[in-house]
């Protein structure tokens, strides 16, 4: 336990100094990182928040992570912060994105942009893995972040059946 606390304190001290290179970050159980307005340059490394771990993004920036993962039981307080990732957004937690934060994808890291996870980042009742990264209404916001398109794309089977009957 002492090691975990010491590691967390050290990481916090590093984060408070200046934008830093990070060689991959795992926030474990009972650990948390508070970013305030700091930037973490991930340089294509992964960030994972485990069950019981917490990231308080504040107005900070997670810059060019490869894969960003929220395990079941993880906590992300998104505030007005920004996450830029090149690979996979995987939300298996209860996290729902607030209106002030930004999640965007970039090219690079030799990976393609993907969305996985049983979580519901836009809070429209449809899981991220079902909505995926496609942008059905071409408004620039991928479906998993766009709660405006859930009804159109994921009508209950009964409604679909009635539509077929009426067609
Ligand atoms: Ca959703
Ligand atoms: Ca959209």
Question: Secondary-structure blueprint of this entry?
Answer:
Elements: H1 2-17, E1 20-21, E2 25-27, E3 32-34, E4 39-41, E5 47-49, E6 54-56, E7 61-65, E8 68-70, E9 75-77, E10 82-85, E11 88-91, E12 102-105, E13 114-116, H2 128-131, H3 150-153, H4 157-166
Parallel strand pairs: 1-4, 2-5, 3-6, 4-7, 5-8, 6-9, 7-10, 8-11, 10-12, 11-13
This protein binds calcium ion (2 copies).
Largest sheet: 5 strands, parallel
Give the overall shape, derived from the CA principal axes. globular
State the domain count. Answer: 1
Our Rg estimate from Cα atoms comes to 18 Å
Number-wise, the strands total 13
- Give the strand line-up of the largest sheet: 1-4-7-10-12
Order of helices and strands: HEEEEEEEEEEEEEHHH
Name the average pLDDT.
Answer: 86
How many helices? Answer: 4
Bound molecules: calcium ion
Provide a compact summary of the structure.
The chain has four helices and 13 strands.
Walk me through what this model shows:
The chain has 167 residues and is an alpha/beta fold. The protein has one domain. The protein has four helices and 13 strands. It has helices at 2-17, 128-131, 150-153, 157-166; strands at 20-21, 25-27, 32-34, 39-41, 47-49, 54-56, 61-65, 68-70, 75-77, 82-85, 88-91, 102-105, 114-116. The strands form three sheets. The chain has a five-stranded parallel beta sheet. Strands 2-5-8-11-13 form a five-stranded parallel beta sheet. It is globular. 29% of the residues are buried. Bound molecules: calcium ion (CA) (2 copies).
């Amino acid at each position: 336990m002492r090691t975990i606390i010491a590691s967390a304190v050290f990481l916090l001290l590093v984060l408070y100094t200046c934008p830093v290179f990070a060689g991959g970050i795992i926030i474990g159980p009972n650990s948390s990182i508070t970013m305030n307005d700091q930037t973490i340059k991930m340089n294509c490394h992964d960030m994972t928040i485990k069950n019981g771990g917490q990231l308080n993004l504040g107005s900070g920036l997670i810059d060019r992570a490869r894969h960003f993962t929220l395990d079941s039981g993880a906590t992300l307080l998104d505030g007005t912060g920004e996450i830029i990732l090149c690979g996979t957004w995987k939300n298996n937690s209860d996290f729902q994105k607030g209106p002030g934060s930004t999640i965007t994808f970039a090219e690079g890291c030799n990976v393609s942009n993907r969305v996985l996870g049983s979580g519901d980042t836009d809070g429209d009742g449809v899981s991220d893995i079902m909505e995926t990264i496609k942008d059905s209404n071409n408004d620039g916001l991928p479906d998993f972040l766009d709660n405006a398109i859930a009804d159109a794309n994921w009508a209950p089977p009964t409604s679909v059946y009635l539509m077929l009957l009426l067609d």
